[in-house]
């Protein structure tokens, strides 16, 4: 399936999902007697703990995505509560597991809104799943911040949906620029996951940027996440004589693909996106991971004081080094608290969805672990990216690329 085929599939899938959602949310409203004030939902009572929701892949093929994000969010909550809470109110987190699946996602996002009565939602990591959760949050009037979904379409659903990460048009450019200018390569192959909006979108963003920078695309191949029978794709990439292979997939597939590529005699470097970001990747790929690069949202090696404090506190709490997802989860939660403080009048009044979303969307110069950033008119964060190189099984800072 080529990119166009993927889009057609996506549209058909979306029609089904939206149809199902329309039915389920009508039923939910009837049962719950959901309150809406002028298109703006009031979930809060104005007193007690402030309830926020997280939906993520706590289990399933990309389980480290949800788990790391949840740890980052929980660290932010712990620090905020220890410092007295949000205008005196403690924050309480409800986490719902998507298992990395779309059907689960629509169920759990609806549950967070109707049953758990959260005032705001953090999630998902995978763009395809934020594309399922976002329209529900938008329709129900509950603000949603995706910590890490980079596909441009995620925030296009409306004013309730924003993100604290950069988008894939930038990430594709970052990878292309690094390949052309730092590695000085001109011939690339692309191998992407046709079942993920993230991967298909980033592949096309990379191709565009790489050719604009004077490079050529020698081969383009696709696989389907979870199906790692890729020998024919690898043979055609090998035959095309590429100097670098762009592989914008998730770690759960990428590790095995790189290992198989080396076994098949492909010796050139692989270059990927943030979907590689997991401590599991080096375990899956073994030695084959070394000498490959990926773009990401931060490096735990950065000297900025926000990074150093975060890494130290995270290590103390969880005894592990935080990946980019943990940092983005932390930033999304902290930005949410900041927006509540700016928009909620307190005094026993409830936190209200529309006003909270407006405060999130007008955030300026927020000092996060993943950089200092503002939310732009498309509700995306504008910020720099890093390129990490795997050395001795560890992602090591190789370059920083500004927007
Ligand atoms: N950006 C990826 C997506 O949109 C998710 C991701 C972000 C994965 C950061 C790892 C690290 O699907």
Task: Describe what you observe in this structure.
44% of the residues lie in helices and 18% in strands. The chain is α/β, with parallel strands linked by helices and 403 residues long. It folds into 2 domains: 50-166 and 303-383, Response regulator (Rossmann fold, 3-Layer(aba) Sandwich); 169-296, Rossmann fold (3-Layer(aba) Sandwich). The strands form 4 sheets. Strands 9-8-10-11-12-15-16 form a 7-stranded mixed sheet, sandwiched between helices. It has a 5-stranded parallel sheet with strand order 4-3-5-6-7, sandwiched between helices. The longest helix has 30 residues, at 3-32. Residues 1-38 have low confidence and may be disordered. The structure holds phenylalanine. Phenylalanine is lined by residues 65, 125-127, 148-151, 198, 274-275, 277, 324-325.
Topology (elements, then pairings):
Blueprint: H1 3-32, E1 36-37, E2 40-41, E3 50-56, H2 63-82, E4 91-97, H3 102-114, E5 120-123, H4 127-140, E6 144-146, E7 161-163, H5 168-182, E8 187-193, H6 197-212, E9 216-223, H7 231-239, E10 244-246, H8 251-263, E11 270-272, H9 280-285, E12 293-296, H10 305-318, H11 324-343, H12 353-361, E13 366-368, E14 371-373, E15 385-391, E16 394-401
Parallel strand pairs: 3-4, 3-5, 5-6, 6-7, 8-9, 8-10, 10-11, 11-12
Antiparallel strand pairs: 1-2, 12-15, 13-14, 15-16
The structure holds phenylalanine (PHE).
Phenylalanine (PHE) binds at residues 65, 125-127, 148-151, 198, 274-275, 277, 324-325.
């Amino acid at each position: 399936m080529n990119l166009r085929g993927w889009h057609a599939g996506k549209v058909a899938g979306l029609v089904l999902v939206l149809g199902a959602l329309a039915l389920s949310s009508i039923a939910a409203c009837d049962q719950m007697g959901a309150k809406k004030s002028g298109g703006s939902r009031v979930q809060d009572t104005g007193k007690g703990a402030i309830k926020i929701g997280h939906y993520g892949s706590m289990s399933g093929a990309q389980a480290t995505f949800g788990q790391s994000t949840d740890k980052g969010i929980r660290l932010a909550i712990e620090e905020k509560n220890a410092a007295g809470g949000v205008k005196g109110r403690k924050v309480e987190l409800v986490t719902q597991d998507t298992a990395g699946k779309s059907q689960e996602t629509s169920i759990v996002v609806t549950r967070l809104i109707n049953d758990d009565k959260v005032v705001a939602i953090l999630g998902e990591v995978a763009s395809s799943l934020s594309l399922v959760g976002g329209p529900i949050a938008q329709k129900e009037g509950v603000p949603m911040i995706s910590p890490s979904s980079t596909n441009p379409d995620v925030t296009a659903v409306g004013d309730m949906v924003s993100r604290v990460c950069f988008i894939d048009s930038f990430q594709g450019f970052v990878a292309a620029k690094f390949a052309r200018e730092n590695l000085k390569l001109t011939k690339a192959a692309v191998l992407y996951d046709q079942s993920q909006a993230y991967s298909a979108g980033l592949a096309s963003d990379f191709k565009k940027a790489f050719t604009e920078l004077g490079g050529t695309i020698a081969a383009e191949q696709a696989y389907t996440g979870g199906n790692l029978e890729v020998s024919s794709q690898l043979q055609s990439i090998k035959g095309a004589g590429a100097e670098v292979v762009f592989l914008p997939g998730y770690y759960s597939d990428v590790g095995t693909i790189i290992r198989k590529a080396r076994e098949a005699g492909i010796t050139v470097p692989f270059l990927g996106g943030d979907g590689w970001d997991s401590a599991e990747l080096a375990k899956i790929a073994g030695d084959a991971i070394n000498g490959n690069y990926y773009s990401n949202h931060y490096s735990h090696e950065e000297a900025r004081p926000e990074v150093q404090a975060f890494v130290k506190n995270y290590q103390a709490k969880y005894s592990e080094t935080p990946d980019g997802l943990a940092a983005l989860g932390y930033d999304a939660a902290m930005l949410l608290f900041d927006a509540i403080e700016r928009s909620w009048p307190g005094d026993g009044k409830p936190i209200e969805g529309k006003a909270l979303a407006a405060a999130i969307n007008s955030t300026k110069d927020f000092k996060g672990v993943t950089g200092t950033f503002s939310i732009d008119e498309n509700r995306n964060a504008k910020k720099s990216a890093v390129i990490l190189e795997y050395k001795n099984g560890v992602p090591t800072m190789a370059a920083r690329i500004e927007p």
